[in-house]
Write a structure and sequence with these properties.
By secondary structure, this protein is mainly alpha-helical. About 70% of the residues lie in helices and about 0% in strands. It is built from eleven helices and no strands.
């Protein structure tokens, strides 16, 4: 008897269907009921993904993007149900990088706003050290967010989980980044309030207080978004990996430690590298 080709076996496992009620593998199911829990299962419905982003070719990229953000935020528990369906990991990673791209635009807007403020005050110096520091700092912030969003995949492959379930956990965990899709809008509101305050304070004195209140609220909401992202990531890992309680607590502790310890180190290192590269380019001009 010859061993099955690993690539063929992996392709077959990728198409496996699991019972959404008890996670039993339905590869050999002959009837309409799961042989493990006895509940009725619609195999045809299980073959269709419920994630809007997967259907962006028909929904449109913009609509599918925001529907997926809403789907994750409002119906987060459905992520676990998606592990019963065949998945393509490229969809999840493309969604993650799309969110990160919007964050890059938001950070670029912060840099552009700072330039506008300097130009308005007559203090802009595009060849000065300030811009090197701005570019290094904002690049490091984006890099840390990208690093942290990828770090979660390290916790999705516990030994007690079958390989197909591990693969599907890895394919679904990128969607946990959805809360960060709200951050660019909050940054835009914050910059708008600061801009209104700077531009209109002299002619419309009463605008200073409401703009300050809205700006501070936007900063507070950015903090809430980051905390919610962390909680959503933890919750998604727990729902997909089926660890015992002790394993969940250990995973939560390790992920928290990684984000609190590794992230500042990564942030500082990346900022240093970016700053050094920009400084070398500046010195060679």
């Amino acid at each position: 008897m010859t061993n099955a080709d690993p690539s063929t076996l992996a392709a077959e496992e990728a198409q496996d269907l699991f019972c959404p009620h008890c996670d039993y593998n339905l590869r050999t199911l002959a009837g309409p009921r799961c042989p493990e829990c006895g509940r009725e299962v619609d195999l045809e419905a299980l073959r269709v993904s419920g994630i809007p982003w997967v259907h962006r070719a028909t929904l449109g990229r913009w609509r599918a993007y925001w529907q997926t953000v809403y789907w994750v935020l409002r119906h987060g528990r459905r992520i676990r149900a998606e592990a019963a369906r065949p998945l393509d990991g490229q969809h999840g990673q493309r969604f993650r990088w799309t969110v990160l791209a919007t964050l890059a635009v938001a950070l670029a807007a912060v840099a552009g706003f700072n330039l506008w403020m300097d130009l308005r005050d007559g203090s802009a110096d595009l060849t000065g050290w300030d811009w090197l520091l701005w570019a290094a700092g904002l690049g490091a912030v984006w890099g840390a967010l990208a690093f942290d969003s990828g770090l979660a995949t390290w916790f999705c492959v516990p030994r007690g989980l079958s390989r197909p379930r591990q693969d599907r956990a890895l394919e679904l965990i990128p969607y946990a980044i959805a809360p960060l899709a709200l951050a660019p809008g909050l940054v835009a509101v914050l910059l708008l309030m600061i801009g209104l305050d700077e531009a209109l304070t002299d002619s419309v004195p009463w605008i200073e207080t409401p703009s300050m209140i809205v700006g501070l609220a936007s900063i507070a909401m950015l903090g809430v978004v980051l905390i919610y992202w962390y909680a959503k990531t933890l919750g998604t890992i727990v729902s997909l990996t089926h660890r015992p309680l002790g394993g969940d607590l250990l995973m939560a502790g390790l992920l928290t430690l990684a984000w609190l310890v590794i992230t500042p180190v990564f942030l500082a290192t990346l900022a240093g590298v970016v700053f050094y590269a920009l400084l070398m380019g500046y010195s060679l001009r």
